[in-house]
Specification:
With 343 residues, the chain is of the alpha/beta class. It folds into two domains: 239 residues, QueA-like (3-Layer(aba) Sandwich); 77 residues, QueA-like (Thrombin, subunit H, Beta Barrel). Helix content is 21%, strand content 27%. It is built from eight helices and 17 strands. The strands form three sheets. A nine-stranded mixed beta sheet has the order 2-1-17-16-14-3-12-13-15, with helices on one face. Helix 7 packs across helix 8. It catalyses: 7-aminomethyl-7-carbaguanosine(34) in tRNA + S-adenosyl-L-methionine = epoxyqueuosine(34) in tRNA + adenine + L-methionine + 2 H(+). It is found in: Cytoplasm. Monomer. Transfers and isomerizes the ribose moiety from AdoMet to the 7-aminomethyl group of 7-deazaguanine (preQ1-tRNA) to give epoxyqueuosine (oQ-tRNA).
Amino acid sequence: MKVDLFDFELPPERIALRPAVPRDAARLLVLAGDTTRDLIVRDLPGQLRAGDCLVFNDTRVIPAQLEGRRGDASIGATLHKREGPRRWRAFIRNAKRLRDGDRIDFGNHVAAIASDRADDGSFALDFAGDEPVELLLERAGRMPLPPYIAARRPTDAQDAADYQTMFAAEPGAVAAPTAALHFTPDLIGALDAAGIAHETLTLHVGAGTFLPVKADDTADHRMHAEWGRIDTATADRLNAVRAAGGRVIAVGTTSLRLIESATGPDRVIRPFDGDTSIFITPGYVFGGIDGLLTNFHLPRSTLFMLVSALMGRERMQAAYAHAIAHGYRFYSYGDASLLLPSS
């Protein structure tokens, strides 16, 4: 499909620079079949059914943004995928000044050797020393806010809390699973009381989630791989939800992509441990999920293509036009949508 089909105009003032306070006070656009409702996230329990199950991503964002020097050259690095105990694949700013074997000094006694430049311009970074890389990043790195926020204001101490979900437990993401940012202990308590279960899985979100689609046709776009895991017990419980007539509702596109990667043609969710580069566009037949709670996505992005595959492209174009006209806030710190297709 032509990428232009997934374009739309978004006024810059619709991009949220801070999250709603409290988190569950964010607005919620509900698309259920052919109906559209304007609510708030706190209303979510009333939009689901007893026996349904929400699936959250428990990845934790690491301080993956680094600023350093190679000689007299300033080098920026955004880690996006772990390749070994001390090796990370990274997108590099000012990559033309970097060669295989160069040492980058990130300050605070943190350094890495660059190697293995890939076709996308990324490098492998091997961190020097014996300290765990996680400690090095805590010392020298900063929270990797999405570029559409970072271009308009600096990262600050508040982002260290704002850009983690209440489920964050497994360090390794360089972007938050932002749909889950809307959840609070009070909201989870209300969902529990309504008979709506929740489960967690892990998918370490990479910086590739922010990369623009440069191809003119979706067939020519290649997704970056991300590592994820669903254990046997979780897969069994999710299958039991559907066997009992409940719905599996992914919270965020990261949870959805991992569930779909783990689901066979028989619609059974299986344990999963490895990389996925699944790319979902209109025409895809969903096998593992029955709905999605997600934020509002960038035009021409793989994530807008995904929601268009779930609900229909014209339906999502109309829904986004409604959201823009009615003042919804977009992107990582913005409002949410609940997508429940008729089927």
